[in-house]
Amino acid sequence: MSKPKSERRQADNEALAVGTLMRVSPRKLGLVADMISGMEAGKAVTALQFSRKRISQDVKKVLESAIANAENNHNLDVDRLVVVEASVGKQVLMRRFHARARGRSGTIEKFFSRLRIVVRERDEREAA
């Protein structure tokens, strides 16, 4: 016997995509996530494509995945999608060491982040 299916946490006009183990610090990823939050989905993809930040291509993949989820899984109109949430969280922390003087060592912390993008279909009332 399997456990019962859990209820959907998003509204009917929302779709979600999550990117895990993104090799960038949450602080740097937050800059790119704040840039696209609140934008229309098409404009956000274009902004990420021409952004000079290294991680913007990975963010673009997650956003395109959210758009594809909205279109294929939830039958939402792609032209009316808006990025309503782009939240960033900590994932894991790789610790490395760097040899220092007099037999000592210094730690190097390599951060990983997770990104959660929620897109929502606008109503006709909101579009006007």
TrEMBL record:
Q: Name one GO cellular component term.
A: cytosolic large ribosomal subunit
Q: Do you know which InterPro entries this protein is assigned to?
A: Ribosomal_uL22 (IPR001063), Ribosomal_uL22_bac/chlpt-type (IPR005727), Ribosomal_uL22_bac/org-type (IPR047867), Ribosomal_uL22_sf (IPR036394)
Any one of the GO BP annotations: translation
- Swiss-Prot/TrEMBL keywords: Ribonucleoprotein, Ribosomal protein, RNA-binding, rRNA-binding
- Highest taxon in the source lineage: Bacteria
CDD domains named in the record: Ribosomal_L22
Quick check: keyword RNA-binding in the entry? Answer: yes
- What Gene3D superfamilies does this protein map onto? Ribosomal protein L22/L17 (3.90.470.10)
Which GO-annotated molecular functions does the record name? rRNA binding; structural constituent of ribosome
Checking NCBIfam families in the record gives:
rplV_bact
Q: What protein family does this chain belong to?
A: Belongs to the universal ribosomal protein uL22 family.
Instruction: Tell me the function of this protein.
Output: The globular domain of the protein is located near the polypeptide exit tunnel on the outside of the subunit, while an extended beta-hairpin is found that lines the wall of the exit tunnel in the center of the 70S ribosome.
Q: How does it assemble?
A: Part of the 50S ribosomal subunit.
What is the protein named? Large ribosomal subunit protein uL22
Query: What organism, scientifically named, is this protein from?
Result: Arboricoccus pini
